[in-house]
Amino acid sequence: MCQLLGMNCNIPTDIVFSFTGFATRGGHTDTHNDGWGIAFFEGAGVRHFVDHQAASISPVAELIKSTPIKSKNVIAHIRRATQGRVALENCHPFVRELWGRYWVFAHNGDLKNFTPALDGPYHPVGTTDSEWAFCYILQELRERFGDNLPCLIELKAALQELTEMIGAHGPFNLLLSDGSALFAHCSTNLYYIVRQYPFTKAKLADEDISVDFSQVTDPTDRAVIIVTEPLTIDETWIRFKPGELKLFVDGAPSGHARP
User: Fold this and answer.
1) Does the residue 79 lie in any domain?
2) Disulfide: which of 65, 71, 163, 218 matches 40 by Cβ 3.0-4.6 Å?
3) How far apart are CA 53 and CA 6, in angstroms?
4) pLDDT class for 259, splitting at 50, 70, 90?
5) In whole numbers, what is the pLDDT of the chain averaged over residues?
6) CATH no. for residue 155?
7) Is 259 inside a domain boundary?
8) Prediction pTM value
9) Quick one: which of 32, 36, 123 has its CA closest to 82?
């Protein structure tokens, strides 16, 4: 299956270090070579890059690794196809509008016999179970809340119900963000780490690259990294429980309502 990478921060931060290790798994140190993608929130907009080539050989991935694009919420994905051919339209993350905001979604898993009716404005462009699930989630959220943007507590409760229902059809690990917060749901495998003061050094598991975060951060900086498998060998990653849905705001797990 695929792998996920997400970042949520309290100030705009670049993801070059984590993405460098993550992209290596896209066809070099692992077999996720059926495309990749990444989306950065920037104000009300989204910088969205996808490529059907493996991330380890993609010139676009090289651009991302060498360009410190800063964002408070980032979602990335490397694909190992289970449903849908290797093609640009089937590369995650997917982007749609709801409540006047862009929503970004990426999925790791394999949903069987999941084709609920899509009778609203959301329809898949590609042929993956993932994009179908994303369209269904947005359709259901719009049905439940109408034109009113819910608070994060209400949104999390609705997503908990939807992920449980969809997850009955197969593994449903996902990342979802509207740019103000990041939701992460674990079906089988997902980890996270909060990097904050006092910052330490870290070494990638897939590349011979290290960074001393104390030299490139301020004491008030805070960032959470979410990933399918830990990216570093010298940090303590926290594993999600199966079925757990977490909400991250300003670089930390949160249960607080949207301000």
Assistant:
1) yes
2) 71
3) 20
4) very low
5) 93
6) 3.60.20.10
7) no
8) 0.95
9) 32
Overall domain count for the chain: 1
Q: Does residue 94 sit within a domain?
A: yes
Domain assignment present for 1: no
Please say if 186 is a catalytic residue. Answer: no
- What b/e sequence results for 169-186 when a residue is b if at least 16 CB atoms lie within 10 Å of its CB, and e otherwise? bbbbbbbbbbbbbbbbbb
Give the C-alpha separation, 156 to 154, whole Å.
Answer: 5
Residue 215 has a CB neighbour count (10 Å cut-off) of 8
- The boundaries of the domain holding residue 125 are 6-253
Catalytic residue (one of 2, 9, 135, 186): 2
Distance separating alpha carbons of residues 168 and 243, to the nearest angstrom? 11
pLDDT of res. 257: 37
pLDDT tier, 255 (very low <50, low <70, confident <90, very high otherwise): low
Q: What DSSP string runs through 78-90?
A: E---SSS-SSGGG
Angle formed by the axes of helices 129-145 and 152-167, nearest 10°: 140
What pLDDT is stored for residue 81 in this prediction?
Answer: 75
Looking at residue 34, what is its pLDDT? 86
Rounded distance between C-alpha atoms, residue 165 and residue 201, angstroms: 40
